[in-house]
Structures are given as C-alpha cells and as structure tokens.
Amino acid sequence: MRLLAAFLLLLVLRSAEPRRGPRSGAAERGSRGNVRGRGRAGVMRRQTQECKEYMDAGEKYLDCQDKQLTSVMQDWPKDINHLLLARNKIQVLRDNMFFQFTQLKSLDLQQNHISMVEDDAFNGLSQLTTLLLQHNRLKTASEEILLPLPRLTYLRLYENPWSCQCSLDSLVRKLQVPSSRNLGNFAKCAEPLSLKGQKLKKLKVDSLCVDDNQVSTGGKEGGHPRPPLIKVKPEATSLCHTYMFPKPQLDCNTKGLDHIPSDLPSDIVKMDLSSNIIKHLRPKQFLLSKDLKLLNLSSNSLQRVDRAAFGGLLYLRELDLSNNSLHYFQYGVLEDLYFLRKLSLANNPWICDYNIHYLIYWLKHHPGVSYTGLFCSEPREFRGWRVEDYVKTYNGECPKDKQTGGVDTGQGVEGESDNEAQEALGETEHLLQHLKQRKRKRFEIIRLS
C-alpha cells in the first residue's frame, strides 16, 4: 500500500514539472520589470515613445524606468493604472504634475533626485493606493501633499535625508495616526544630530520645534525665544501657477512682478511673464530654464536688457517683447538665441540712431527669424519709418552734382526773364550775385546744380 502511494506521488510530481517551468520564467521576466506578470499569453506590449506600455491582469502599465526623464510627458496614455518612473532624474514634483492620470493606482518614483514635492503635486490621483518615494533627496514635506490621496494605503519614504524640524511637523503627525500604519515606515531623521537615526513614526512631535527655537547663545534673542522656522516655497511657484499639461508651463501673467522670479523651474517649456511691471532684465536670470521654448515678456515696462540676459536659452523658439519701453538692444544681447524663430517687437519706442544698428545687423545674419513691429519712433524726421529702411539710408551717399565740362550752366535767378541769357560764371561769382539780389536774408545756403 505504501509502495503504491509513493508511486502515485512520483507520477504527480513528474506531471507538474512542465507547468512549473513557464510560470517561473514569466515571474522572472516580471521581476525584471518590477511588475508581477502571468506569462506571454496574458501580456500585450507596445512602444509608447521610449516607455513600454502593456496590459497585465486587466490593468494597464506604463514602464518608464531608467529613461533619464526629468518630468512626465504630455502624450502618455491617460488611462494607465500603474506608472513606473524609478531610476530617472526627476528633481521636483510640480503642482498638478500627474493630474491627467485619474485612474492611477500605483506610482513608483523611487531612486530619482526628488528634493521637493509641491503641495498640489498629486492632485487628481483620487484612486492612488501605492506611492513609492524612497531613495530620493527629500528633506521636508507637509501633510498637504497627501490630501488629494484619500485611498493611499502604502507610502514608502525611507532613505531620504529628512530634516526633523518644524517644517516636518504636519507630515509626522499624519504618519503617526493609527490609520496610517503602512505610511512612512522605516523613514528616519538625518538631522539635527540630536534626532539622527530616529524613525519618523516614533518621534515626539511636540519636540520637533524645540531645537528651532534655540540658538547657540542660549536659545533666546533679546530675551525672547526665536520664532519657529517656516518652510518658504520658492518664489516662482509661490507667486505663479505651474501647469504640466498640455505642456509644462509657468503662468505669471498679471502678478504685479517688478523683477524676474527667483528659482525658476528647470523643466518649464512655456513661461508667461506678461502684463507685469518688470523694467530691467539682468544677466543669467533664465540660466536654469534650459528647456524653455516660448518666453512672453509683453506688456511690461522693459527699458533695459543687459548682455547675457537671455543666457542659457539655447532652445528658445519664440520671444515676445511687444508693448514695452525699449529703445534699442545693446550689442550682444541676442547672441545666445541660436534657435529663435519668432521675435515680436511691436509698440516699443525704437530710436533710429546708431544704437539701433545692432538689432538690424543680427536680424540680417539670422534670416530664419521672423519679426514684427520694428518701426522708428524717434527722431521726428524718421517717425513711422521701418527701422531697416532707416539703416539703409544711414550710410547712403548724397547724389553727385551734375557737371558739364566742369562748368556750371547756371539757372535764371529770381526777377529775371527766362529769355535773358546769362553768361557763364564761376561758382564764386554766381553765388555773390545771388546773395546781392536776396537782401532779406543775411545768410543763405544754396545748392549748386
């Protein structure tokens, strides 16, 4: 009986081996993609730009790992359920960055360079249950980043250099709520030194701001505790609106700005700074906005643009400087705009003198740039002229006097009959005779022709 049972068991094991192989192979392939799979029969794959899109167990995945990405792309599918962005180069999670992915259930952002998460970065992700942010460069964040995620169940925050100070207070309190048992496990403080290595889940929240109130001279300034440090949002994103779709855009229209905001985002494609009161563009203010393709500075009060003001804008295609107070450009101002295609210059008081020549010279040597609105405002005699027409006449020669054998033929002077013949006179004699007859004016300059 035992022998029969052993024989039957051996047959069962042998029959199971062929089925085990393909399953393990599919699992191995799935693990390499950080996604559990069910084999080739259950997976449909196609290429989406550089990313791989596929179906598994009835849900859509978009695998964009290891693609050197700095942001999400506007043409990715909107109906994906799982977005894999691990091991890229994303630095900042902007407001509304994932707004179009309303069906997203998991978002993998581990092993990027993320140092800041704006409060509304996860707007629209009401179905998200899993968020992976481990192995990044986060030092602080607020509870507000989690408010758009009512279904969030798993949150990974470990291996980030968390600065356990007042700015982290609201997030720590959220993580320590009993219902958040799978949020932020294993995340630890990196600073200050007194809290280094302590888990965020086990911190005494009331002590987070104590160190902020102390200074090296006894913790008081003028006998009063120093107020707690407050996290300051970068100027550009606190004053302006950031939109990621249909393309990354910074909208600073009509914000009363009198200068270019600091900390401009590096991944912005379109920047609208119109209808403000900016008067002066200083060097290298757009240096970090290397992806910028459209810059709108119209309807400001621009009077001066320094050399290197557009430094770094190598890929800028459109520049709108209309409705400002520009008179001319200094030599070299436009030299960084290698790929510019459209330049709007209307309604500026362009002064047609020698200083305007650089602008025409640059446009002449960049025939691919279309431009509008370049008309003289001053001086009065050239008002309304096209600037390029003025420049053409600037170096024009006066027409040479017509001469016949070196002798002036002479013309009838005022008061003499046309029929009276006048003897040929030299230039000097003719001029003296003319001055004697015109006694009303003391001096007169006449042209001999």
UniProtKB/TrEMBL annotation:
SUPFAM superfamilies: L domain-like. InterPro entries: Cys-rich_flank_reg_C, Leu-rich_rpt, Leu-rich_rpt_typical-subtyp, LRR_dom_sf, LRR_TM_domain-containing. It comes from the Eukaryota. Residues 160-210, 348-399 form the LRRCT domain. Residues 1-18 form the signal peptide. Keywords: Leucine-rich repeat, Repeat, Signal. GO terms for cellular component: plasma membrane. Pfam families: LRR_8. Residues 19-44, 401-423 are annotated as: Disordered. PANTHER family: ANTIGEN BSP, PUTATIVE-RELATED, INSULIN LIKE GROWTH FACTOR BINDING PROTEIN ACID LABILE SUBUNIT. This is LRRCT domain-containing protein.
